[in-house]
Amino acid sequence: MSRLKQFLQDSETKAFDLGHRSTIKFNIGKYNAAVERGLTQYSDHELARERASFIKTNAINNLDKYLMEFEANFTARGGKVIWARNAEEALKEIGQIMKRRRAKSVVKSKSMTTEEIHLNDFLEKNGIETVETDLGEYIVQLAEQRPYHIVTPAMHMSKKDIADLFVRKLKIAPTESAEELVATARRLLRDKYTEAEVGITGGNFLLADIGGVAVTENEGNGRLSTAFPKTHIAIVGIEKMLPSVMDLDLFWPLLSTSGTGQQVTIYNTIFTGPRQPREKDGPEEMYVILLDNGRTDLLALPEKREALNCIRCGACLNVCPVYKNIGGHTYESTYSGPIGSVITPHYNGMAENKHLSFASSLCGACTSVCPVKINIHNLLLLNRRQSVEQGFTEKNERTTFKLWLKAMKSRKLLNMAPAGVKNFVLKQVLKDTWSKRREPLKVAPKSFNQLWKERK
């Protein structure tokens, strides 16, 4: 089955799953209320967005300069930088590190970039136990699913769903207490931190001026995943760059408020390399893998490169009417929702993923909440245009539009067919789309052109 047909099939299933929609409505509703409260900390939120947009745009337009500055400053403190053009190169380098460390187990902090390169599958195939330490990621790992949401991986699951999963997978006694579920996960994960040879994180921001990787989290699992293992690997997309550590006073609150409604997340850590001689804890060695994986292809498109400004807050997902109806798993991609529909065709191929850019009402809600002011709905239109220009539309669609164009440019042709014939054609063309859930479209017995002539 093609990705488009699978998408349409899954979309329909989720859209009519009232239980799923109820869970998502409840969970997103809580986030929206929290975000509304969080925004009250700003005296001028629009000004903050404009400043963030300016800083990120500057960083992306001068990415080569800032990446070299980051590498120089990070390696000066004993860190090692690995440049990976694609997922295969990144996984190969990680595999070599694992062999050198003779690693048998890995603890992972939450990271969408590792999901992008399918790191867990790679490590498991190489006999290395991989444990997700973020609670949401741990839950979806137990459920053998991919993350549902950029910020909240298990947003699609209710408390009862999680309790049933823990009873089934972890053999605990049935409980309705969220505190007991969290305590169970904490108890099981605690020993994993001290046993693992390698800790893996992503990075919310790269800081060029100090050679730092900034990691934002709410549970402390990111710090535990990097404090105990002797090796720390941070896998970060090259677009996460900020010019200076001083920019964090703007970006940390924007990220947390837009994503979860917090004034600032609980744990914010900056890693600038392995443990130094006078430091008491931290890894003996630290690697930063700078991942391209299609980002420079997007960078090469001036009218679209602003998509690389994204700070992965998830705000656009929470307001998107399409996402709230079809859910995150339907997209079958690492990054779902509006921003995922923009970047996935460039990361994973336009031919296979062009349909994502059409899965939008173009209402502009995503653009209105983006903390770095990415014009998301316009980028979706540009993706649509690119897919047409590159010939990725289906033959019957091209034929339909050619006939429609020819008829619309000729009043004679448009009036030639009687209303009954037009209705028959519309019924056949729209039977699997519009008419499947709606009353069939019908043209009027007489066109406006004919009515106008009769009037005179």
Please explain how this structure is put together:
The N and C termini lie far apart (56 Å). A hairpin with a 4-residue loop joins strand 5 (205-207) and strand 6. With 456 residues, the chain is an alpha/beta fold. Strands 1-10-7-4-2-3 form a six-stranded parallel beta sheet, with helices on both faces. The protein has 24 helices and ten strands.
- The CATH superfamily name of the largest domain is NagB/RpiA/CoA transferase-like
Name the CATH architecture of the largest domain: 3-Layer(aba) Sandwich
Kindly state the number of beta strands.
10
CATH top level of the largest domain is Alpha Beta
What would the CATH topology of the largest domain be? Rossmann fold
Count of discrete domains: 3
Question: How would the global form be characterised?
Answer: globular
Number of helices: 24
Helical fraction equals 40-55%
Mean pLDDT: 94
Largest β sheet strand count, sense and barrel closure: 6 strands, parallel
List descriptors:
456 residues, alpha/beta, 4-stranded mixed β-sheet, 24 helices, Rossmann fold, 54% helix
Set down the secondary structure blueprint.
Blueprint: H1 3-15, H2 18-38, H3 45-61, H4 63-75, E1 80-84, H5 87-101, E2 105-108, H6 112-116, H7 119-125, E3 129-132, H8 135-142, H9 159-170, H10 178-195, E4 198-201, E5 205-207, E6 212-217, H11 221-227, E7 231-237, E8 241-242, H12 248-260, E9 267-271, E10 285-291, H13 295-299, H14 315-319, H15 321-326, H16 337-348, H17 350-353, H18 365-369, H19 376-389, H20 395-408, H21 411-416, H22 419-430, H23 434-437, H24 448-455
